[in-house]
From TrEMBL:
Residues 124-217 bind DNA. Pfam families: Response_reg, Trans_reg_C. PANTHER family: REGULATOR OF RPOS, TRANSCRIPTIONAL REGULATORY PROTEIN CUTR. This is Response regulator transcription factor. Residues 124-217 form the OmpR/PhoB-type domain. Gene3D superfamilies: 3.40.50.2300, 6.10.250.690, Winged helix-like DNA-binding domain superfamily/Winged helix DNA-binding domain (1.10.10.10). GO terms for molecular function: phosphorelay response regulator activity; transcription cis-regulatory region binding. SUPFAM superfamilies: CheY-like. InterPro entries: CheY-like_superfamily, OmpR/PhoB-type_DNA-bd, Sig_transdc_resp-reg_receiver, WalR-like, WH-like_DNA-bd_sf. Keywords: DNA-binding, Phosphoprotein.
C-alpha cells in the first residue's frame, strides 16, 4: 500500500509517516497544494490523507478539483475542524471519510483499511474473488481453500490487480506501484512475475496486449 499525505504540520506529518512505516505502508508527504498531483496520471497512490487548511489554499478546493477530474482514489480528510457543516462539506465534496485532530494513529489506519476495502468492493479483511481468497494484512492467498505459495513480489502483484478486478491496469502503472519510492520494475521482470503468478492461479489472468493486465472478478 502506498499513501499520499498532504499535511503542513511538521510534527504530524512526521508522526504519520512513522506510524505508516511501522505497518509496512509506504508514503509520500507533501505540505502544499502546489505540490499535489494534478491529474489521474500523477495519482499513483492507494489512498490520500488530506488536510483541509494548507499554506496555499483549502483542501476542500483540491478535493473538488480531483473529483471533477475523475480521480477516484480514496481520500480521507484530516482536520482540526469539528463542526458538522465542515464534515458534511467534506463528504459531499467527495471525501470517503473524515477524521478530527487529534486522533489515534491506530484509528486512522483502521479507517484507511476500511475505505480501501470499500474501494475494492470487499466487506472484510479477507477479500473474496470467486474461488480466490486474499488476506492483505497477513500476506496470504488461497485458491479453492488451498494455500498459494507466492513470492512477496507475486503476492504484491496479485493484491494490486485484486484492488480493481475486471479493470485493466496499465503496465507502466503496475510497474511503478511495485516500487512506489524507487524506479519502476523493468517490464521484462514484470512479465516473468506475472507469468509465474498466472501459473499458480490456474485461472484466467490475461495480458491485454499493449495495454496492461487484469484479474477477472
Amino acid at each position: 500500500m502506498h499513501i499520499l499525505i498532504i499535511e503542513d504540520d511538521l510534527d504530524l506529518g512526521f508522526a504519520l509517516q512513522q506510524a505508516l512505516k511501522a505497518e509496512d505502508i509506504s508514503s509520500e508527504w507533501r505540505r502544499n497544494i502546489a505540490d499535489a498531483p494534478r491529474g489521474a496520471q500523477d495519482m499513483e497512490f492507494d489512498c490520500v490523507l488530506l488536510d483541509l487548511t494548507l499554506p496555499d489554499g483549502l483542501g476542500f478546493d483540491l478535493l473538488k478539483r480531483w473529483r471533477k477530474a475523475g480521480i477516484a482514489t480514496p481520500i480521507i480528510v484530516i482536520t482540526a475542524r469539528s463542526a458538522l457543516d465542515d464534515r458534511l462539506a467534506g463528504l459531499d465534496g467527495g471525501a470517503d471519510d473524515f477524521i478530527i485532530k487529534p486522533f489515534a494513529t491506530a484509528e486512522l489506519i483502521a479507517r484507511m483499511r476500511a475505505v480501501l476495502r470499500r474501494y475494492a468492493q470487499q466487506a472484510s479483511d479477507i477479500w473474496q474473488l470467486g474461488e480466490l481468497q486474499i488476506e492483505p494484512r497477513r500476506h496470504l492467498a488461497s485458491l479453492n481453500g488451498a494455500p498459494l505459495d507466492l513470492s512477496p513480489r507475486e503476492f504484491q502483484l496479485l493484491l494490486e490487480l485484486a484492488r480493481e478486478p475486471g479493470v485493466v491496469v496499465p503496465k507502466g502503472a503496475l510497474a511503478q506501484r511495485l516500487e512506489p519510492l524507487g524506479d519502476a520494475v523493468d517490464f521484462g521482470a514484470l512479465e516473468v512475475h506475472l507469468s509465474n503468478l498466472r501459473a499458480k492461479l490456474a485461472r484466467a489472468h490475461p495480458h491485454v496486449r499493449g495495454v496492461g493486465y487484469m484479474l477477472l472478478p
